Amino acid sequence: MRSRMPRRRKDAPGQQSLFDAAPDGRPLPAPEPAAPPETTPPAPEAPPAKAADGTPPERPPPLTPGRKERRFMETSGYKAMWLFVLFDLPVDDREKRRDYARFRKNLIKQGFSMLQYSVYARHYSNEETCAACKEFVRSVLPPEGQVRLLSVTDVQFGKMEVYLGKNREETEKPPLQLMLF
Protein backbone atom coordinates (compact mmCIF):
# COMPACT_ATOMS: atom_id res chain seq x y z
CA MET A 1 0.00 0.00 0.00
CA ARG A 2 1.44 3.33 -1.03
CA SER A 3 1.31 6.06 1.61
CA ARG A 4 0.35 9.58 0.64
CA MET A 5 2.19 12.56 2.10
CA PRO A 6 0.05 15.38 3.56
CA ARG A 7 -0.19 18.67 1.73
CA ARG A 8 1.98 21.46 3.08
CA ARG A 9 0.34 24.69 4.23
CA LYS A 10 1.14 27.66 2.01
CA ASP A 11 2.39 30.65 4.02
CA ALA A 12 2.14 33.29 1.30
CA PRO A 13 0.01 33.69 -1.81
CA GLY A 14 1.71 32.31 -4.89
CA GLN A 15 4.25 30.30 -2.87
CA GLN A 16 5.08 26.98 -4.47
CA SER A 17 5.17 23.78 -2.46
CA LEU A 18 6.79 20.46 -3.22
CA PHE A 19 3.54 18.77 -2.16
CA ASP A 20 1.23 20.58 -4.62
CA ALA A 21 1.33 17.70 -7.09
CA ALA A 22 0.43 14.02 -6.96
CA PRO A 23 3.30 11.50 -7.32
CA ASP A 24 2.53 11.16 -11.04
CA GLY A 25 2.81 14.95 -11.57
CA ARG A 26 -0.91 15.85 -11.76
CA PRO A 27 -1.99 18.85 -9.67
CA LEU A 28 -3.91 17.97 -6.52
CA PRO A 29 -7.51 19.22 -6.25
CA ALA A 30 -8.10 22.25 -4.05
CA PRO A 31 -9.31 21.33 -0.57
CA GLU A 32 -12.99 21.92 0.12
CA PRO A 33 -13.69 24.73 2.58
CA ALA A 34 -14.78 23.64 6.03
CA ALA A 35 -18.48 23.97 6.79
CA PRO A 36 -19.21 26.88 9.13
CA PRO A 37 -20.39 25.90 12.60
CA GLU A 38 -24.15 25.99 13.12
CA THR A 39 -23.93 28.13 16.21
CA THR A 40 -21.13 30.40 17.26
CA PRO A 41 -20.13 29.94 20.88
CA PRO A 42 -19.94 33.14 22.92
CA ALA A 43 -16.50 34.70 23.20
CA PRO A 44 -14.79 33.74 26.45
CA GLU A 45 -14.47 36.46 29.01
CA ALA A 46 -11.01 37.87 29.56
CA PRO A 47 -9.44 36.23 32.61
CA PRO A 48 -8.77 38.49 35.55
CA ALA A 49 -5.22 39.74 36.02
CA LYS A 50 -5.03 37.76 39.29
CA ALA A 51 -7.33 35.35 40.99
CA ALA A 52 -8.99 36.31 44.28
CA ASP A 53 -6.27 34.49 46.25
CA GLY A 54 -3.47 36.44 44.45
CA THR A 55 -2.23 33.63 42.16
CA PRO A 56 -1.76 34.30 38.44
CA PRO A 57 -4.57 33.04 36.15
CA GLU A 58 -4.27 29.69 34.41
CA ARG A 59 -2.86 29.71 30.89
CA PRO A 60 -4.25 27.52 28.13
CA PRO A 61 -2.06 24.53 27.31
CA PRO A 62 0.44 25.07 24.44
CA LEU A 63 -0.42 23.68 21.02
CA THR A 64 0.73 20.12 20.58
CA PRO A 65 1.22 18.14 17.35
CA GLY A 66 -1.97 16.15 17.99
CA ARG A 67 -4.21 19.22 18.01
CA LYS A 68 -5.96 20.59 14.96
CA GLU A 69 -3.92 23.80 14.77
CA ARG A 70 -0.23 23.27 14.14
CA ARG A 71 2.60 25.69 14.32
CA PHE A 72 5.25 25.39 11.67
CA MET A 73 8.90 25.62 12.64
CA GLU A 74 10.56 28.62 11.08
CA THR A 75 14.32 28.99 11.00
CA SER A 76 15.76 32.30 12.10
CA GLY A 77 17.50 34.37 9.45
CA TYR A 78 20.37 34.78 11.88
CA LYS A 79 20.82 31.03 12.44
CA ALA A 80 20.63 29.95 8.81
CA MET A 81 23.95 30.30 7.00
CA TRP A 82 25.22 30.53 3.44
CA LEU A 83 28.69 29.13 2.75
CA PHE A 84 30.55 30.62 -0.20
CA VAL A 85 33.52 28.88 -1.79
CA LEU A 86 35.54 31.26 -3.96
CA PHE A 87 38.50 29.80 -5.81
CA ASP A 88 41.18 30.62 -8.36
CA LEU A 89 42.89 27.44 -9.45
CA PRO A 90 45.59 27.02 -12.08
CA VAL A 91 44.70 25.14 -15.28
CA ASP A 92 48.10 25.32 -17.01
CA ASP A 93 48.57 21.61 -17.65
CA ARG A 94 46.46 18.47 -17.78
CA GLU A 95 46.99 17.44 -14.14
CA LYS A 96 46.03 20.90 -12.82
CA ARG A 97 42.86 20.88 -14.96
CA ARG A 98 41.97 17.48 -13.45
CA ASP A 99 42.48 18.87 -9.93
CA TYR A 100 40.22 21.82 -10.80
CA ALA A 101 37.54 19.51 -12.22
CA ARG A 102 37.68 17.14 -9.19
CA PHE A 103 37.35 20.04 -6.74
CA ARG A 104 34.43 21.56 -8.66
CA LYS A 105 32.64 18.18 -8.95
CA ASN A 106 33.08 17.56 -5.20
CA LEU A 107 31.41 20.92 -4.49
CA ILE A 108 28.49 20.05 -6.77
CA LYS A 109 28.10 16.59 -5.16
CA GLN A 110 28.01 18.31 -1.77
CA GLY A 111 25.05 20.44 -2.95
CA PHE A 112 26.72 23.72 -3.91
CA SER A 113 25.31 25.87 -6.70
CA MET A 114 27.38 28.04 -9.01
CA LEU A 115 26.68 31.77 -8.55
CA GLN A 116 29.46 32.86 -10.92
CA TYR A 117 32.50 31.20 -12.42
CA SER A 118 34.61 29.93 -9.50
CA VAL A 119 32.02 31.14 -6.93
CA TYR A 120 29.81 28.46 -5.39
CA ALA A 121 27.34 28.75 -2.51
CA ARG A 122 25.14 26.50 -0.39
CA HIS A 123 22.46 27.16 2.25
CA TYR A 124 22.68 25.55 5.71
CA SER A 125 20.09 25.59 8.48
CA ASN A 126 22.63 26.34 11.21
CA GLU A 127 26.27 27.14 11.88
CA GLU A 128 27.18 23.62 13.03
CA THR A 129 26.30 21.99 9.69
CA CYS A 130 28.07 24.85 7.91
CA ALA A 131 31.22 24.16 9.96
CA ALA A 132 31.04 20.45 9.09
CA CYS A 133 30.87 21.33 5.40
CA LYS A 134 33.89 23.61 5.77
CA GLU A 135 35.79 20.57 7.02
CA PHE A 136 34.68 18.63 3.93
CA VAL A 137 35.85 21.43 1.61
CA ARG A 138 39.20 21.52 3.41
CA SER A 139 39.55 17.76 2.88
CA VAL A 140 39.12 18.05 -0.92
CA LEU A 141 41.31 21.12 -1.52
CA PRO A 142 43.54 20.84 -4.59
CA PRO A 143 47.33 20.97 -4.03
CA GLU A 144 47.71 24.39 -5.74
CA GLY A 145 45.66 27.55 -6.12
CA GLN A 146 43.69 29.83 -3.86
CA VAL A 147 40.40 28.86 -2.17
CA ARG A 148 38.42 31.11 0.17
CA LEU A 149 35.55 30.03 2.42
CA LEU A 150 33.09 32.70 3.52
CA SER A 151 30.03 32.08 5.68
CA VAL A 152 27.31 34.71 6.08
CA THR A 153 23.90 34.66 7.74
CA ASP A 154 20.73 34.41 5.71
CA VAL A 155 19.91 38.03 6.61
CA GLN A 156 23.31 39.24 5.37
CA PHE A 157 22.90 37.22 2.16
CA GLY A 158 19.51 38.85 1.57
CA LYS A 159 21.13 42.31 1.67
CA MET A 160 23.30 41.45 -1.34
CA GLU A 161 22.61 43.47 -4.48
CA VAL A 162 22.74 41.60 -7.78
CA TYR A 163 22.90 43.36 -11.15
CA LEU A 164 22.62 41.96 -14.65
CA GLY A 165 23.95 44.80 -16.76
CA LYS A 166 22.32 47.88 -15.25
CA ASN A 167 19.19 45.99 -14.19
CA ARG A 168 18.91 44.88 -10.60
CA GLU A 169 18.05 41.20 -10.11
CA GLU A 170 16.54 39.49 -7.08
CA THR A 171 18.91 37.54 -4.81
CA GLU A 172 18.59 33.76 -4.62
CA LYS A 173 16.04 32.43 -2.14
CA PRO A 174 16.93 29.78 0.43
CA PRO A 175 15.49 26.34 -0.28
CA LEU A 176 11.86 25.81 0.80
CA GLN A 177 12.63 22.45 2.35
CA LEU A 178 15.51 21.34 4.53
CA MET A 179 17.44 18.39 3.17
CA LEU A 180 17.38 15.38 5.48
CA PHE A 181 20.11 12.96 4.49
Structure in words:
The chain has 181 residues and is α+β, with helices and mostly antiparallel strands. It has a domain at 81-169: 2-Layer Sandwich (Alpha-Beta Plaits). It has 3 helices and 6 strands, in the order E-H-E-E-H-E-H-E-E. The strands form 2 sheets. It has a 4-stranded antiparallel β-sheet with strand order 2-3-1-4. The chain starts with 80 loop residues before the first strand and ends in a 12-residue tail after the last strand.
Features:
181 residues, Alpha-Beta Plaits, 3 helices, 18% strand
Q: What's the topology here?
A:
Layout: E1 81-88, H1 94-109, E2 113-116, E3 119-124, H2 127-139, E4 146-153, H3 154-158, E5 162-164, E6 167-169
Antiparallel strand pairs: 1-3, 1-4, 2-3, 5-6
Can you summarize this structure?
The chain is of the alpha+beta class and 181 residues long. The protein has a domain at 81-169: 2-Layer Sandwich (Alpha-Beta Plaits).
Q: Specify the number of helices.
A: 3
Topology as a string of helices (H) and strands (E): EHEEHEHEE
Question: How much is the average pLDDT?
Answer: 75
Helix/sheet category? alpha+beta
